[in-house]
Amino acid sequence: MTNDYRFEFRPYQRKFLRSLTTNHGKWDIREGIILRLTNESGKLGWGEIAPISWFGSETIEQALDFCRQLPVEITDEIIFSIPDELPACQFGFESACEMGSGEWGVGSGGDEGDNFMTPNFSLLTPNSLFYSALLPAGEAALNQWETLWQQGYRTFKWKIGVYAIADELEIFESLIQTLPAFTKLRLDANGGLTYEEANLWLRTCDNLKANPELPLEIEFIEQPLPVEQFQEMLELSTSYETAIALDESVATLGQLAACYQQGWRGIFVIKPGIAGSPSRLRKFCHQHQIDTVFSSVFETAIAKQAALQLAAELSQNNRAIGFGIDHFFEQEETWFQSLWNDL
Questions:
Q1: pLDDT tens across 35-65, in order?
Q2: How far is residue 274's CA from residue 255's CA, in Å, rounded to a whole number?
Q3: CB contact set of 22 (below 8 Å; sequence gap of 6+)
């Protein structure tokens, strides 16, 4: 039986407290789209489209164009035939269908007269132990880890490939000397290293691993080389003790499947918000039992809830998930309701 929904959407902008600096450049404003589906019995389902075009998803303009051309009444059939070129849209609409099953919806024990139901923010309070916290690039990391450690985080991710490698290796040396015992550290290059630099980082990490005096763990280096250098990353993954995780290379479900078919059996960083269809992602992960780290796309609470449900269901090997990013935004739970009611 096909479900019919009334479809509404609102674009949003959220400013980062400080620019997010990666090898892709500076990022100041997170733009996205909040979706609301209302089914025939009045239940609401919320979804979010949060593209990152330089990561391989559609642009925010393409997502908005898609939303604008849809009719007010849409069906499951429309939702499940969104093309693969719009992976963030696939995620947003499918999540809204799933969320409309009653968890947030009006008519599921809520006030029947209320035309708005906020997400359950208590479900989104980070269990810091199982979250990886993102550190800023460069020397700023040396000043920020302590605050996050006090909040309970024990796994950190630090951006590399942003500044000169000699400078970053020096900061890295300071960072590993100051981080407490039993910390896990992930290094994320966002595809920004040369082959020689990747070897240097991996060699440096292997030397640290071999040092019994060092009580912290370098968990992996994330996406050391650009997407088109897959074979080189495959080769590096067998040449060093330090693990490599693919990120940009596996941004969408199609890319993820292609890398698996070409022999990647290392770690896959999955960003559900831009990966594409949640139902097809579930199927792939169940079928192949891949080693995953689920990660944020700097989404709001809406997409985060849907992403965390997938992570809880599909994570293997007990790896911390990459959703420790709340310190990059103002914490403002009311913005969501204002967004909807003010427009």
A1: 999 999 999 999 999 999 999 899 999 999 9
A2: 12
A3: 137, 159, 162, 188, 190, 192
Counting runs of H as helices and runs of E as strands, what totals does the chain give? 12, 12
- Cα separation of 133 and 130, whole Å? 10
Q: pTM of whole model > 0.85?
A: yes
Query: For helices 60-69 and 87-99, what crossing angle results, to 10°?
Result: 50
CB neighbours of residue 125 within 10 Å: 8
262-308 tens-digit pLDDT: 999 999 999 999 999 999 999 999 999 999 999 999 999 899 999 99
Gap between the Cα atoms of 151 and 38, Å rounded: 38
CB 245 within 8 A of CB 220: yes
Q: For residue 4, what are its two tokens?
A: 């019919």
Which are the catalytic amino acids?
159, 271
Six-digit token pair at 296?
A: 């944020």
